[in-house]
Request: fold
Amino acid sequence: MERLTKTGPIFTDLYELTMAQCYFAEGITDEAAFSLFVRGYPENRSYYVAAGLEEALAEINDYTFSDKDLAYLDKTGLFTDDFLDYLNRFRFTGTVRAMPEGSLFFADEPIMEVSAPIIESQLLETYLINTIGFSSLIATKAARCVHAARGRNVVDFSLRRNQGIDAGVKVARSCHIAGFAATSNVLAGKLYGIPVSGTMAHSFVSIFENEYNAFRVFSENYPDNTVLLIDTHDTIQGAENAAKIGIEMQKKGQSLAGVRLDSGDMATLSRQVRRILDDAGVTDATIFASSGFDEYKIDRVLRENAAIDAFGVGTKLGVSADAPYLDMVYKLVHFGDRDITKQSPGKAYLAGEKQVFRKIGENGMYTGDIIGAKNETIENAVPMLETIIENGKITAPLPDLADIRRYCAESIARLDETIKAIDSPAPYPVSASHNLLEKQKHMAHGSPGGGHGNNL
Reply:
């Protein structure tokens, strides 16, 4: 996978490094296991889509401090020469188990568990929450848009409103995993091989003395991809001009690919435009709509019988406007020879290293998850966490983006429609196994690091 940047362990919160120096000074090197999971759901969510894993693994596989990183840390005056020398030799040597990218996951169950000497596993916290948290947030939003579109194509138009270059490419990749057909982001197309999409802006139409000439010039330059933006002046007149272009293209053995609506009453206008195109015999031209779309607006206009064939989704997707963050956390669950949790009200979590078991019905549909202990087995259920890094190295070639996208689509298809509902979705059943609950009871009765772990 080609990456936009390689950050290294310097991409972290300061407290990760100050803790690490304390561990180093005290000779604390025991194995520590951390679980990465999301607490609860934002409104109108009942599932998440796992994304960002491949980028995270590539980073972990080559997790080193550069000379410039170490020089900067030295200048802070916070770290000893011995500790900086340790960081100069730092490598990740541990184990990572994770759900495959494109998997569905649910609140409070681990999407990933990391086990390594405490400094190594601790230093990954900020990076993993940032990378997997953001990508999974967007992939989930994108999956909801795809579901709302009811089989129509959806295109990522969010780049100009994404919050930075890195976010822009992550959004495009996450959307593609979740089922988007293309992106406007040319850099993401180059990096990931995602199909790119885009034709003209209103400024293009305004440059010419009239709309018809603008359409003519574009159709002559891009006869195989003529999609005309018809609302710069008047949408109905724009549709009539597009129909004229479509007729002229047919005479040349070409065809008008489509028109784009970018303002107004989308349901009503799309029906009017469809009638104009069909009456002119330009029946193959699709109607593409953009401007303020997300899953809610897509769902609404289709309920209003809009004659829209595809959607461009921008700002509200790129920042996941209705749910702009995930409460993703990375919590210590095992250290040395003991399981760990904490007692903070409202923030307790399941102690111990874990496995997630997914139950699948005879019809192939997901029926519920069981969070169990790492080494237990549960009949008639599929273990979701797979070992993907061992002894600090990726264990096998990672799937390509097309395979991840295909797996994601298959996973979403296995989820009941009521759980995928855009508004007020039904909850997906997640429970804890008997063995895991017994661990929590033991800890609740006063063993070191104890607390209450069953919040399912």
Q: What stands out?
A: Confidence is low (pLDDT under 50) at residues 446-455. The first strand starts at residue 31 and ends at 38. Residues 1-195+314-353+386-414 form a domain with the nicotinate phosphoribosyltransferase fold (CATH 3.20.140.10).
